[in-house]
Amino acid sequence: MTTTSSYRIQGATGEWEVVIGLEVHAQITTQSKLFSGAATAFGAEPNTQVSLVDAAMPGMLPVPNRECIAQAVRTGMALNAQINRYSRFDRKNYFYADLPQGYQISQLYHPIVGEGEIEVTLDEKNPESARKTIGIERLHVEQDAGKLMHDQHPTRSYVDLNRSGVALMEIVSRPDMRSPAEAGAYLRKLRTILRYVGSCDGNMEEGSMRADVNVSVRRPGEELGTRTETKNVNSVRFVMAAIEQEASRQVDVLESGGRIIQETRLFDPDKMETRSMRSKEDAHDYRYFPDPDLLPLELEDAFLEECRASLPELPDAKRHRYENALGLSAYNAAVLTAEAETARWFEALVAESAKAAGKSEADVAKAAANWLLSELFGALNRLGKTLDTSPVNPAQGAELLGLIADGTISGTIAKQVFEIMLDTGDPAGKIVEERGLKQTSDTGAIDAAVAKILADNADKVEQYKAGKEALFGFFVGQTMKAMQGKANPQVVNEVLRKALG
C-alpha cells in the first residue's frame, strides 16, 4: 500500500505543500582515493594523506580506482537502478582555497547510474500500511574537495587536503517527498542500504555521509515553486529540522508579498534556522566539459556480473524472509533489518540456538527476536553499549535461551542469570550450576508450597471458587515467590488447577 503524506504548513492565507528532494553525498568505502593511492582514514593529522595528484602538482594524471567504480555499481544495483555501461567524467570548474586543481572531477552528462527507487516505511509500528516509493534520479561518482579550518588562528584560515580526492557517490532523489518525516525515512533507508552493501559506512557525524536539502513550497496541486538548497546537513534529525524551518521561512516570505530566490543556504543547528550562503549557480556557471585526462568508462558484462554476485541479501528481502520463513511479526522484522549489524547478530543468535536445540531456525526465531529486542537491547541502552561492544555474544545468548526452552530455568530466573552474565562475562550454564538456580519440576515440593498458600489464603480460595477466577494469578505468583522463582510455571499451574478443583 502506498500512502502520501498529509503534511501541510498552515499559513495566514491558507495551506501550503512542501516539495522535497535530497542530494546525498556518500563517501565510498575504500582504502584509497578516487584517482590516487592516498589513504582515506578518518581523523588523520591535517595534510598527511595527500598525494601529488590530490595536491594538483604539475604533470600528475588521475587513474580511476576500480573498487570505487565497483562500489558505485553495486549501490546502483541495490537501488534497483539503471546501470549505464557507458559513463564519462567531467570537470566542474570553480575556484576555492580547498580545491587545488581549480576544478572538481565529477559526472554531469553521463552518470554511471541512472533512475532507481527506494521504498520507505512511514510508520514503524505498522510497516505494512504506510509505505511510499521515492524515485532516484541518478547516482554519479565524484571527488571531494579539501577542508578549510577557521578555528586554528585568529586571523587566518588553514587548508587541510586530506579529503581532497576522496571518492564520493552523489545520490540524487526525485522531488517526491512531501514532509520532513518522509525525508527522514528516505535518508534512514538509504543509509541502511549503503551499510548492507558496504559501499559507505553512513557515519554522518564523521562526514562520510551528508545531505543537501532542496525545498520549495506551493499551494496544494499547483506548479512547483522556486527551491532553495541547504548544504551539508549531517544528521537525519537536522535534515528534518532544516526542512521544517526552511519551508516555514518560505511560506512567511511568500505570504508577506516577497519572492523566493534560488540560492544555497546553510543550516545552523544551534539556532535551528537556515541562512543564506550564496546565490545558486546553474550548471553553465561551472563551465563543465569532458575531462581530457580520463577516458570514458565502459563496463563489461563480466564486471557487472561480478558486482551483482557480490551483493548481500538486502534489507527488504531480508525483512520478507524474516516474516515469511521465520514467522516474525512485521514490526520485529522491520526493527531487526533496519541495521546490518543487528541483522547479523540476530542471525548468529538464531543459528546458534537452532544448533544447540537440534531444531530448525524457524522454531527458535521468535524467542530469539523477542529476547534480543527486549532484554539485550534494554541492557545495552542502560550500559551505553552497542551490539559491537556487547558483553554477551550470540553463542552466550543462545545458551541462555536454550536453558529457558528446555525448562532448566524459568523466565524470571533467566533475567537474573542475564544480569550476572553482563557483570561477569560468565556463560549461563556455569552461573546456573554454581548458584543453584535450576528450575524445579519436583511436584512434591510444589504440592507442599501450594497446600500452604491455599491454607494461608482460605478466604481467597472461597472467592475463587465463587467465580473470581482472576485470583488464579495471585496463587501462581505466591507459589513462585515461595519457591524463590525456581518452580516450573507449567507444573505450578497444573498443581494449582488440581488443588482448586
Q: What is the number of helical segments per DSSP (H or I, 4+ residues)?
A: 15
The largest β sheet comes out as: 9 strands, mixed
Q: Could you tell me how far the N terminus lies from the C terminus, measured between alpha carbons in angstroms?
A: 52 Å
Helix content: 25-40%
Low-confidence stretches: none
Mean pLDDT: 92
Strand content range: 15-25%
Number of separate strands:
16
Cα-atom radius of gyration = 30 Å
Counted up, domains total 3
Strand-pairing-aware structural class:
alpha+beta
Shape annotation = elongated
GO molecular function: ATP binding; glutaminyl-tRNA synthase (glutamine-hydrolyzing) activity; transferase activity
Catalytic activity: L-glutamyl-tRNA(Gln) + L-glutamine + ATP + H2O = L-glutaminyl-tRNA(Gln) + L-glutamate + ADP + phosphate + H(+); L-aspartyl-tRNA(Asn) + L-glutamine + ATP + H2O = L-asparaginyl-tRNA(Asn) + L-glutamate + ADP + phosphate + 2 H(+)
Family: Belongs to the GatB/GatE family. GatB subfamily.
Domain Asn/Gln amidotransferase: 344-500
